[in-house]
Amino acid sequence: MKKGDARRQQILETAERLFYQNGYENTSVQAILDEMHLSKGGFYHHFESKMALLEEICVRKAEEAYEEMEQVMYDGSLSAIDKLNALLGRSGLLDQDNIDFLALMLDVAYREGGVVLRERMKQASLDRALTYMNAILAQGLVEQSFFTQHQEHIGKLLLMLGFNLTDEIAAAMASDGAAQPVIGRVVGLLDTYRSAIETLLCAPYGSITLYSVRYIVDMYCRLKGLSAPPDFRLEE
C-alpha cells in the first residue's frame, strides 16, 4: 500500500471510530485531526469535507457487503433461489455484526436531508450486485424455478425493490414510535416485498425469504437497547 493510500485508510478508520463513539454531528474535522496529529492540509488532500469522508465509508461498507457473494455464486450445490435469497439479504446496512454503522446511518442518512448519502450507497453496489443478479436469473430460468419474459431488465428492477425495502426498514427503525408498531410495520413490508418478488419471477410461493422477522426484531432491539423476550408479540 502506498504511503498516501495508507494515510487515507488511517483517516477513514479514525473517523469511523469517532463517528461511532461521539456521533457524526459531534465529530468535527478538527477532532479527527487532533486524534491523528494531522494537519488540515493532510486531511483536505484526501477528502474535501467530512461528508465526503462519510460517503467513502458508506461506499466501502456497501462493497464489503457483496464480497462474500463470490463464494455463494460459485457454489454448485446452491440453487438459483438459494443464491437469490443470499443476494437480496446482502445489505451492509442491515448487518447485525455492525450495529454501530446502522445506528450512524439511521442518524445521518435516514433523517431529513440524507437522500444523497443513501443514493450514493446504492450506486456503489448496483453494478456488482446486478452482475450477480443476472447470473442468478439465468440459472433460475434453466432450473425452471423462475419464469420471465423480461430477463434483460428485471434484474435491476428486483435490486431496486431490495434497495427500497432496506430504505423502508431503516426509516421505520429511525422513527421514534413505540416498538411493536414499528416492528409490525416492518413485518408487513417484508410480506409485501416477498410477495412482489415472487410474483415478478413466477417463483414458488414462500421461496423468497429476504430477512427473517426474528433477525429484524433482534436488530431493532439491539439498536434501541431493548430486551426482547423470545415471545415478542407483533401487532397485526
Automatic annotation (TrEMBL):
Q: Domain (HTH tetR-type): give its ranges.
A: 5-65
- One annotated GO molecular function: DNA binding
Specify the species: Candidatus Alectryocaccomicrobium excrementavium
Question: Mind listing where the DNA-binding region sits, in residue ranges?
Answer: 28-47
What UniProt keywords are attached to this protein's entry?
DNA-binding, Transcription, Transcription regulation
State what protein this is by name: TetR/AcrR family transcriptional regulator
For this protein, the record's Gene3D superfamilies field holds: Tetracycline Repressor, domain 2
